[in-house]
């Protein structure tokens, strides 16, 4: 957990708060002893912090533009990128079955845990502190979003690249896992499996699979 604190630039006085923020309900079988309540609070703090930053620093933007930019910044794709940079996936506490199913690679879970950590910081130190941390972590993505460069339709991007190289056949094979709570999608190109992705929907899992292959190809920034 010290690795997370160093990356955040914040040290928890009560380490149990951070532990709870990292605990998936599969490890406790209880909604009270996992990250879900912290996630609820962190989501609210995140929305307010990003809204305030956009309002103050981009007075030329309309209400509609502010709303669209905020949506791109606080979505699970962006938050999961931040979570990956913080290496949260190696610290999330899961039940044994969920570990085997690679739940730590699920972008939605990574995003949820990041929000839970924001919530835990808010509880311990208040909004001003968590606001600074949120802005520090998300500022590069805010700048990309304002410039129109925050792009998440990885399936379309992959399709365009493959078509340029000879219109090879792309197939996504989807399956539900762990009592239908999550999906896994395997990406095949010309019959060869090239990646797999995870998500709370088939669409999200397919996008994750396409994103991972684009990364491997060097066609996508992390």
Automatic annotation (TrEMBL):
Write the record's keywords in alphabetical order, separated by commas: Cytoplasm, Endonuclease, Hydrolase, Magnesium, Metal-binding, mRNA processing, Nuclease, RNA-binding, rRNA processing, rRNA-binding, tRNA processing
Q: Which Pfam families match?
A: dsrm, Ribonucleas_3_3
Residues in the active site? 43, 115
Q: What GO molecular function annotations does the UniProt record carry, in alphabetical order?
A: metal ion binding; ribonuclease III activity; rRNA binding
- Reactions mediated catalytically: Endonucleolytic cleavage to 5'-phosphomonoester
Query: Entry's InterPro entries?
Result: dsRBD_dom, RNase_III, RNase_III_dom, RNase_III_sf
Highest taxon of source: Bacteria
Grouped into one coarse class, the protein's main location is cytoplasm
Q: Indicate which residues the UniProt annotation says bind Mg(2+).
A: 39, 112, 115
Domain DRBM spans what residues? 153-219
Q: Which GO terms describe its biological process?
A: mRNA processing; rRNA processing; tRNA processing
What is the documented function of this protein?
Digests double-stranded RNA. Involved in the processing of primary rRNA transcript to yield the immediate precursors to the large and small rRNAs (23S and 16S). Processes some mRNAs, and tRNAs when they are encoded in the rRNA operon. Processes pre-crRNA and tracrRNA of type II CRISPR loci if present in the organism.
Q: What does the sequence similarity comment in the record state about its family?
A: Belongs to the ribonuclease III family.
Relate the assembly described in the record.
Homodimer.
What protein name applies here?
Answer: Ribonuclease 3
Q: Which gene encodes it?
A: rnc
